[in-house]
Amino acid sequence: MAILKSRLHELEERKQEEKMAVLNKEKKEIAWGSQIRSYTLHPYKLVKDHRTKLEEHNAESVLTESLMRL
User: Fold this and answer.
1) Sheet strands side by side (includes 37-40)
2) pLDDT in tens, 27-65
3) Distance CA 57, CA 7 (A)
4) Measured between alpha carbons, how far is 43 from 13 in angstroms, rounded to an integer?
5) What is the pTM of this model?
6) pLDDT tens digit string along 1-13?
7) Can you give the C-alpha Rg of the chain in angstroms?
């Protein structure tokens, strides 16, 4: 019974490792330039979303909205 229990445990561990390998493969490397959004507050005000290429010149409203979500 102990051997069967041990083998079942090993099988579950392998399944979990395979599942994590699939999830880790989808991750992107975190590096300089892979940012999602940038904020420029001086000398002009601009919030730029690098995924959607959206630029918002009213930085205060974006920052206020972000604070309201917290």
Assistant:
1) 37-40, 46-49, 54-56
2) 777 788 788 889 999 899 999 998 899 999 998 898 898
3) 60
4) 54
5) 0.48
6) 999 999 999 999 9
7) 23
Q: Which two tokens stand for residue 38?
A: 């940038």
β-partners of residue 48 are 38, 55
Answer yes or no: are the C-beta atoms of 55 and 47 closer than 8 Å. yes
CB 40 within 8 A of CB 27: no
End-to-end C-alpha distance for the chain, whole angstroms: 52
List the structure tokens of 8: 């079942």
Looking up tokens 């940012």 gives 35
